[in-house]
Specification:
The chain is built from 18 helices and 15 strands. The chain has 406 residues and is an alpha/beta fold. Helix 1 crosses helix 3, helix 1 packs across helix 4 and helix 3 runs parallel beside helix 17. The structure holds 1-(beta-D-ribofuranosyl)-1H-1,2,4-triazole-3-carboxamide. 1-(beta-D-ribofuranosyl)-1H-1,2,4-triazole-3-carboxamide (RBV) binds next to helix 3, helix 10 and helix 17.
Length: 406
């Protein structure tokens, strides 16, 4: 068996979703057409561990067109789109992913993607690379290099590199300007609210929206929530980030205060225990809580469970907890990243640039990864400008004014 998905009969529906995403991802599609001729990934065996979405499928098809063999797993138990997974399996991609798998199954899926002894790895959150470094160290010798999609993963890898524990070079795709200044801001901003709205259908206008953390993701969420008429409160421990939030027009206060006034909470810190028991104790009846950070540790859900006298699923991805004093708190997407658990992740247009960076990083590793050290590398700044130019051109707004050229 070279795949395990929820239901192969969903493949036709998945294909439609992927075709739709392709129509919104012109930069990656242009790279695919070039790659089909030049075959820069010939001989590469790429193990990927990244949300199985329609956009990821466009990336997978692009890697295959460029000559790579791939093997895939999801990087979060609730982010796999079963229709897309079925479509990829039907296209012959070894894929091990289904929505709602257990932690044990999650690692089983990652392990399967290592069966073909990859020579490149692609991560979102670093779980695959950690698996190689812990339980499959013997495979590391054969790996030319890896890529990492997200902030949390890059933090984990930089810590590993600092300890001298990294066994092959990794490109921090996240740190490219055409990734984190777009995906993290506009992608997270729109898709997180999309998840909350799909799960609740609430009116944002007039609501107090508490955004935990004012990094790129928090900034995007705050900006879009304000745009929908929400009254944004930011919680932030880093002084300069708190200052930015204030200058962007938001209120800033500690979570201990924000907990009392918030209607909707969205954490985006990358830290654990941002909303905990003492916050649940003072929240308003009807408060909606969610997280958009990579891991589900930002809301301490066991504290909520402990305080609840009852729980029911109101609608998909929306669980009502009734506390002992009668107040109700609504948990969205089990505290897992709300944009992927309760919606479809970032819109295709923004993933177009993120995944163009992924593709180019893998091509770079295939070409000269052997000459790199076991460090975390950034992609060259020229690549950002080139991708920016390409993206502008596909949007019909090529920056052609000679006065703006240097
Ligand atoms: N992300 N992928 C999607 N639609 O495929 N949406 C979000 C998608 C990625 C995003 O790049 C972010 O860095 C990461 O998910 C967090 O796990």
């Amino acid at each position: 068996m070279n795949h395990k998905v929820a239901d192969l009969k969903l493949a036709d529906a998945g294909r439609l979703r992927i075709d739709w995403a392709e129509s919104r991802m012109p930069v990656l599609m242009a790279l695919r057409e070039k790659g089909r001729k030049d075959r820069p990934l010939e001989g590469m065996r790429i193990a990927g561990c990244l949300h199985v979405t329609k956009e990821t499928a466009v990336l997978v098809r692009t890697l295959v067109a460029a000559g790579a063999e791939v093997s895939w797993s999801g990087c979060n138990p609730l982010s796999t789109n079963d229709e897309v997974a079925a479509a990829l399996a039907a296209e012959g991609v070894p894929i091990f992913a289904w929505h709602g798998l257990s932690t044990e199954e999650f690692y089983w899926c990652i392990d399967r993607t290592l069966d073909f002894k990859p020579n490149l790895t692609l991560d979102d959150g670093a779980d695959l690379i950690f698996t190689v470094h812990s339980r499959f160290q013997h495979l590391a010798k054969g790996v030319i290099g890896g890529t990492e999609e997200t902030t949390t993963g890059v933090h984990r890898l930089r810590a590993m590199a600092a300890d001298g524990k990294l066994l092959y070079p990794v490109f921090a795709v996240n740190d490219s300007e055409t990734k984190w200044d777009f995906d993290n801001v506009y992608g997270t901003g729109q898709s997180s609210l999309d998840g909350i709205i799909r799960a609740t259908s609430v009116l944002l206008a007039g609501k107090v929206v508490v955004v935990g953390g004012y990094g790129h993701c928090g900034r995007g969420v705050a900006m879009r929530a304000a745009g929908m008429g929400g009254r944004v409160v930011v919680t932030e421990v880093k002084p300069t980030a708190a200052l930015k939030a204030i200058l962007d027009g938001h209120q800033v206060m500690p979570m201990d205060e924000a907990a009392k006034v918030g209607d909707i909470f969205i954490t985006a810190t990358g830290m654990k225990d941002v909303v905990v028991g003492r916050h649940f104790d003072v929240m308003k009846d009807g408060a909606i809580i969610s997280n958009t950070g990579h891991y589900d540790c930002e809301l301490r859900i066991p504290d909520l469970e402990e305080r609840a006298r009852g729980k029911r699923e109101m609608r998909p991805n929306n669980e009502e907890y009734t506390l002992k004093d009668g107040r109700r708190i609504y948990l969205i997407g089990k505290g897992r990243l709300v944009n992927l658990a309760a919606a479809e992740g970032h819109p295709s247009e923004v993933m177009d640039m993120s995944f163009a960076n992924q593709y180019l990083a893998l091509c770079r590793l295939a070409r000269d990864g052997k000459n790199l050290e076991n460090k975390v590398y950034e992609l060259p700044a020229e690549q950002d400008q080139e991708l920016g130019r390409l993206k502008l051109a596909t949007m019909g707004s090529a920056n052609e004014d000679p006065a703006t050229e240097t």
